[in-house]
Specification:
heterodimer; A: alpha/beta; Rossmann fold; 2 domains; 14 helices; 49% helix; globular; B: ABC transporter involved in vitamin B12 uptake, BtuC; 15 helices; 0% strand
């Protein structure tokens, strides 16, 4: 079985080399006269595929031109990604092992929860895979930037980005002296997030008190509509619904939530900035902080 | 007879109040009821009027609908196994609802959602009647039911698999098992008018169903228009099951358990069983929905799961009893 796989793999490599040669011949010498000026050092990966929407964005921010080949299809959706325009320059992948393997990557960047079967398969096929844990705090954002930077061999660029992020965060936290309104993040199926999560920390950084903390939900959990209504937060933050109806998303659109939002400021968040531990969280915090300032004192 | 009515009505009333009083937001019975009738500006009024009242109202309306539909179908087919859930009418209705939600048809006009579920339920009923024949022999009835349920279930799953919504897979459970959690007054106004229409149609069947116990020829000679009877049954069942399923998913076994429990008390008269099953069904669904909230309050236990746990053993018992006919 193993020999068979090995042989078919080598046959495949031969075939793809053949295709490469054909492409080279076709492209002619003119294009290759100007060899791409890569600043990448010798051991830097030069065909990188990212399989997770969060690592997609970090890789797009940090990679050299031509170094990153493909990003996940979620990077093309405004609800999940803050870099839809940039993603147009890459090949989308849907995270299947076969598809990623055919892209001939020398490095695959995946999230911890990215399709485990596909990731294991790629590792078995001898492809280097780096897994990056998803950010569960603002501190993790910095760590994620540096980890992806190290994987891409772009350490310097990553350090600059991380420093910018730290400075931006410090500047935002400096101006949160005002009154702190109580708020709830209320998502599909009535799920609310607690303080020990990235979104929870973002809410606090924007100058709000998270009602989940009052209820002792540190990480988050399902908050029945009744309890949400009873705790009467000033602001209920809900997300944009996906196309195609779902009952899960009907919960944050229940008349009770609508009534609570009508009484206070209705806050709809731009999910692309919230989902991942990227520097875009600063933009999300800033928008939210501005909305807080419009609340009655 | 009247004693049974009073007893069932009283039980339903008690369960209705209990349903209003039970929920994650803890408050005494007096507090909840006063918040319901008097808007004192507290969140409790919002909870009572927008969360608990629609839930209790839907439990009553859906229970009555399913009980009535079960009793009517059993009377017409003269078979205790005829129940909208078992013979695939509920799953057909669920498919209709899912299809109209996923294609966006549900948003085109106010009653589009229950109307779609109703149409699909109608197809389901007609298929069952065509396959099982007017006498509704147990074997063909159940086989037809299995086939229609499987088909409708597969199509529902397919429609949800193709949905662009990331929560769609989660929806399959709701549409197959049914739930009354987090419904609102919008759902009450959506479902009740169509259900009421179905109630009227099914309630008019009493005399015809009584006559039918003597056989089709006897019923015809007593001046019963069998074609009209059949039409009213089909339309009425589609209305009540379609509207109920459109807002709460496919809740099974209500129409099986309730008529079975009440049949001995009404002397086997289908006309009396219709009314008794309607009130009994309301009590049954209220009780099951209270159980959902008491047994596993934090886990969103599905109403259909509780009903199946109550109903499936009875279904097995009925099959055991009718196994001679089935063999």
């Amino acid at each position: 079985m193993r020999r068979l796989t090995a042989r078919s793999t080598s046959a495949f490599v031969r075939l793809s080399k053949l295709i490469n040669v054909a492409v080279l011949a076709f492209a002619g010498t003119a294009a290759f006269a100007e060899a791409p000026k890569r600043v990448v050092s010798e051991d830097a990966p030069d065909r990188v595929v990212s399989m997770n929407v969060c690592t997609d964005q970090l890789a797009m921010l940090l990679a050299d031109e031509g170094q990153l080949v493909s990003v996940s299809s979620l990077a093309y959706d405004r609800r999940t990604s803050a870099m839809v325009e940039e993603a147009q320059n890459y090949i989308p992948n849907t995270g299947r092992a076969e598809e990623v393997f055919l892209l001939e990557p020398d490095l695959v960047i995946a999230g911890t929860y990215t399709a485990r079967a596909a990731v294991t398969m790629l590792e078995r096929l001898g492809i280097k895979v780096v897994t990056i844990a998803s950010a569960s705090s603002l501190k993790d954002v910095r760590a994620g930037i540096l980890e992806v930077g190290a994987a891409l061999n772009q350490t310097e660029r990553a350090e600059v980005l991380a420093a910018e992020f730290d400075a931006g965060l410090a500047a935002l936290q400096a101006d949160t002296a005002a009154r702190k309104p109580r708020a709830a993040l209320y998502g599909a199926n009535g799920y609310t997030v607690g303080s020990q999560t990235l979104s929870g920390e973002m809410l606090v950084a924007a100058g709000f008190i998270n009602i989940a903390s009052e209820m002792g939900l540190t990480h988050g959990g399902t908050l029945p509509l009744e309890l949400l209504a009873l705790s009467a937060p000033e602001v209920v933050i809900t997300s944009q619904p996906y196309p195609g109806a779902s009952r899960s998303e009907a919960v944050p659109r229940h008349p009770v939530v609508a009534r609570m939002q009508a009484q206070a400021v209705s806050t709809k968040i731009d999910d692309g900035d919230w989902l991942c531990g990227t520097p875009f969280v600063l933009r999300a915090i800033k928008t939210l902080a501005q909305q807080r300032e419009t609340l009655k004192p | 007879m009247t004693r049974l009515m009073l007893l069932l009505s009283a039980l339903t009333a008690v369960l209705f109040v209990a349903s209003l009083a039970i929920g994650p937001a803890e408050a005494s019975l007096a507090e909840t009821l006063s918040a319901l009738f008097q808007d004192d500006g507290t969140p409790l009024t919002l909870i009572m009027r927008e969360i608990r009242l629609p839930r209790a109202l839907l439990a009553v309306a859906i229970g009555a609908s399913l009980g009535l539909a079960g009793a009517a179908m059993q009377g017409y087919l003269r078979n205790p196994l005829a129940e909208p859930g078992l013979i695939g009418v509920s799953s057909s209705a669920a498919f209709g609802a899912v299809l109209s939600l996923q294609t966006g048809f549900a948003a085109t006009f106010a009653l589009a959602l229950p109307f779609s579920a109703l149409s699909a339920a109608l197809i389901g009923v007609l298929l069952v009647l065509a396959l099982a024949g007017p006498r509704g022999a147990s074997m063909t009835l159940i086989l037809a039911g299995i086939a229609i349920s499987a088909m409708a279930g597969a199509l529902t799953s397919l429609a949800l698999n193709l949905s662009p919504n990331p929560y769609a897979a989660h929806e399959i459970v709701f549409w197959m098992m049914g739930s009354l959690a987090d419904r609102s007054m919008q759902h009450v106004t959506l479902a009740v008018p169509i259900m009421a229409l179905g109630w009227l149609m099914l309630a008019s069947l009493g005399r015809g169903l009584d006559a039918l116990t003597l056989g089709e020829d006897a019923a015809a000679s007593m001046g019963i228009n069998l074609k009209r009877l059949r039409l009213m049954l089909v339309l009425g069942t589609s209305c009540v099951v379609g509207a109920a399923t459109a807002v709460a998913g496919a809740i099974g076994f209500v129409g099986l358990v309730v008529p079975h429990m009440l049949r001995p008390f009404v002397g086997g008269r289908p006309s009396r069983l219709l009314w008794a099953s309607a009130i009994g069904g309301a009590a049954m669904v209220l009780a099951a929905d209270i159980a959902v909230r008491l047994v596993l309050p934090e886990r969103d236990l599905k109403l259909g799961v509780v009903m199946a746990l109550i109903g499936a053993p009875l279904f097995l018992h009925l099959i055991y009893k009718t196994r001679k006919e089935l063999a």
